[in-house]
Design brief:
The structure is a single chain. The protein has helices at residues 2-22, 34-49, 53-68, 70-77, 87-109, 180-188, 216-226, 228-232, 235-257, 272-281, 306-309, 311-316, 326-343; strands spanning 123-132, 136-139, 148-154, 164-169, 193-198, 262-267, 286-291. By secondary structure, it is an alpha/beta fold. A 7-stranded mixed β-sheet has the order 2-1-3-5-4-6-7, with helices on both faces. The longest helix is centred in the N-terminal third of the chain and has 23 residues, at 87-109. It is elongated and about 80 Å long. 37% of the residues are buried.
Amino acid sequence: MKLYGEILILVLMLLSNGRVLTIRKPHLDPLVVLAPLSFLLSSLNLSAFGIDSFSIAIFVISFLVLVSNFHALIRYGSRLVIDRYSPLMKTWAWLTTILTLTVLITLLLFKPVDFRPRKSGVTNTVINYTGNFTRGFEPAEKFTICTGFLHEYSTNPERTYKPDVVLFMPDKRGDTVNYEPFLYQLSKAGYTILAGDFYTKDCKWLHTVEDSRIMRRLGLCIRGVSNPSKFLSQKEFYTFNFYREYKVMVELGKEKYGDDCKFFIVTDNMGLTAALDIQKDLPDQIKGVYDISSNPDYLTPGFGFIQVTNPLLARKLGFPKDSDLSSVSSCVESTSEAIRSVWLKK
């Protein structure tokens, strides 16, 4: 969805610029409305999917296109005929066209691998929550600020009681979106999975404006890439936050499936210590823990399966696109083996 939205915005900007470069006779210029439309869509794209290299580049270019077309928008709003564009306007059009084509080509070269979630037979149900870790969480009503997002991956979402559920907590450099190829395949293997993303004011990770929903993943990724040793040295601080999230996940899981529900925690890299801690505190409810970063075929621990979902970032880290999903399949196999080794003992 994100990929197709970004392609649409880039095409709209190319059409908007093209009218400037191809005008031949006086006429009203209705295509100028594509400039504010592109800017609106790029803004919505940022708010929906967060900031990454492509979304911010598209947003900046759409802003430049909007500003350069401001005078043309006024003329069109006044129903004035345009007979020509100034050399400055055409220069701006050429510049933004080159920038747009560069981003479009790069986007197509580094587009995510299609892991075909619609054909997997797995349903991803998202429950929005409002609240925080101090007061607790409750399902969000319409027009309320959502601070928690619970994803349920299941091949049978209509079955309300599930005695054994996998809890997955993403590393914050990835968030759930960058683990979805793994989560869909693991659920297809027969597991019901709950994955959670929380963005509350009482559980900060960066203590800057980057703690916002649209910026947190990017901020942590930059720190993880630019100075990995320093980032990993803060593991104890992150463990406290992870523990709070695990505790809420268990509570929400029990509310959803009943007090008899048992959990197996799957985590990645920075979340392992907290997962082991909560297993010690809740041994009757948490039956096992597995860290996917222990799998040698998983080359981007902490960032999620970016060789599938974000090949550009993976290339930055020195790893190629995983077109055949081999790393995902390997992690699903080792995770399933770890889960079976615990649950088959019952």
